[in-house]
Amino acid sequence: MHDQLINVVVAGLGGQGVLKASDILADAVLRAGFDVKKSEIKGMSQRGGSVTSDVRFGRIVFSPMVSPGEADYLLVLEPTQLEPHKHYLKPDGMLIMPDAVAVDKLPNKKTLNVALLGALSAHLPLPEAGWLEALREGFSAELFDANRQAFLAGRAGQHPPKA
Amino acid sequence: MPSPKRQLLSGNEAIALAARDAGVALGAGYPGTPSTEILERFSELGGYGQWSPNEKVALEVVIGAAFGGARAMATMKHVGLNVAADPLFTAAYTGVSGGLVVISADDPGMASSQNEQDNRHYAVAAGVPMLEPSDSQEAYDFLLAAFEISERWKLPVILRGTTRVCHSYTVMQRRGPNGAPKAPKFERDIRARVMIPANARPAHKRLRQKLAEIAEWSETCSLNHVVPGDNKLGIITSGISFMHAREAAPEASVLKLGFTHPLPIRKIAAFAKSVKRCIVIEEGDPYLVEAIRAAGIKVEGKAEMYRFGELNVPRVRRILNNDASPEPAPAPGKPPQLCDACQYRLVFETLRQRECIVAGDIGCYTLGVLKPFEAMDSCVCMGASLGVGLGLRHVLPPEQARRVVSVIGDSTFVHSGISGLVEMVYNPPAEGHVLIILDNGTTAMTGHQEHPGTGRKLDHQPTNKIVVEDLARSLGVKRVHVVEPRVGSNEFERTLDECLASRELCVIIARRPCILIVKRLRELEQCECETKEAPCTIS
User: Fold this and answer.
1) What is the C-alpha separation between B190 and B206, in angstroms, rounded?
2) What was the ipTM of the complex prediction?
3) Which of B107, B165, B168 to mutate to test the interface with A (most CBs of A within 10 A)?
4) What is the pTM of this model?
5) B322: phi then psi, degrees, rounded to nearest 5
6) Considering the domain B224-320, what is its CATH architecture?
7) With 50 as the cut, is the pLDDT of residue B18 above it?
8) Nearest CA to CA, how far is A37 from chain B (Å)?
9) Which of B145, B157, B137 is nearest to B11 (CA)?
10) Which CATH fold would you assign to the domain B7-178+191-218?
11) Rounded to 5 degrees, what are φ and ψ at B190?
12) What is the band of A159 on the pLDDT scale with cuts at 50, 70, 90?
């Protein structure tokens, strides 16, 4: 098991599914046996404001918040949210923007959050079966299939990180 | 025996689960970020949870339940405890029969609040024990401990969370049922519970005696423990700050205080003596550091600049490095705003055009202060729109007084606007007054909770409904208007102009359901019509 912490920040606007995406990520992490913490400020999210969620995992996690300059991965669901959140990313951290997936090919545009999770998943040490279980748990039966497709499309579209 | 399942729960969910396992018979509160989810989850788990009109009433109901021998809890955000402070202080004198825990969810940094008061001071001021969890496992464990402490010393106990404890998800395991709930039974105890001065004087002495015993107990209780480390640096900390400190200085020795009133002073002194440098890391006010120094123990604290806002790992590193240089400004996110289709856009546009002086209140509609409306001139606390508006009307010259209006939401009105309306009727300003109640049929800001004006209880089941216009009329207000603000109708503007010109007492109820719950409301109403017996199950 990784001794090192992995820090993920998910950013977007209210209504985009930022919290849903981080829920599923945290669930997949929990299923893989890691310690995990997830933190978010959501007080005014329903009024269209910025929403950010931090997910941290590893052998043991203390603070629930990702510090600026320490995010290994930054998922941005809405391009305007890059500027206010890019300072979280490590110098060698990975930025995942909506253009990481072919949005037009998604069966449902609302699944962008899950498609980007799929893109992220290609880089994380978590088994695919755990991701799919987390998706099944996180969505109703009628929404599961579209989200599974979006996840797999995002996952397939990623190339292994360059050495 | 297999170990219990690892669950990823928020602090609030963990508290709700612990309340079920502790056999809590009644939970009452008023919605407020970051506390709201506790009672909602408690109710979903099968507990009896209720929204009360405000935190004072909620705590009084809970005190009654505890007088009856049941375990009971009141939940509220930090500022809610101001409202509930009156019963809290005297319940510390009366004591309780069943366990009573007050959950105060503080909001350092003000993610969604009008101030960042530090409610640890309430434990000292009221003289009640206090516990501070730092993650979901502790939120769960500490609620169980809080009930045991409450029953052992027959005192109300405060469990204080903060936004990052209440809303962060961390891995926890359930302990299982914590003792069978006692059957409630009334036992008369006039001297303990009727606080006339003759009974209250000895009650105060009893309280101080109990606190002295608890202080002794806290010296050895496991809620306060040392994480051993290097003796070069010792950190005394509590709550979420413990987590930041462990990450910022993994090599340090740490005295982790889970039980923070009364403080284990001898234990703190021994810890401070065992390390070369001893520093207190705490979020908010310098509560721990002042109490520790007052006991004659030499410790370092933080620079004044770290009193403001939340702590995090970088800020704790700065405190440890005695770094008080200016911090980088946080990058601005997109601020919230009134929803595009919100009916109250029209209300605030109308107020702006008429250059009204608007005494505002607490809710989503406080966003009427932002551009493009900028149609709010004050927002102090729940219900203050009435009193502040009336005060302005009393003293301003007539041409200004006539432009003053009070604006309040439906849930806030029931919370603490009703006594303001009584004030309006009892002490009418010479130029009259105009109160606008924005009735969107829900407590929208905190995530659409029910309230006494919706006619549905916390679990959305139907109950008696408070009709705001009937209440205003029964108080003697002659001009009571119910209008629907909507595009294409000038009814609201016309009514407001008539009221402003009337120089009388006027109440305008601007009624239209919150657009975010229109669909759910329709389903609930249909459900109520169709099935009077079977419960509604829409969440």
Assistant:
1) 15
2) 0.92
3) B168
4) 0.95
5) 55, 35
6) 3-Layer(aba) Sandwich (3.40)
7) yes
8) 5
9) B137
10) Rossmann fold (3.40.50)
11) -60, -45
12) low
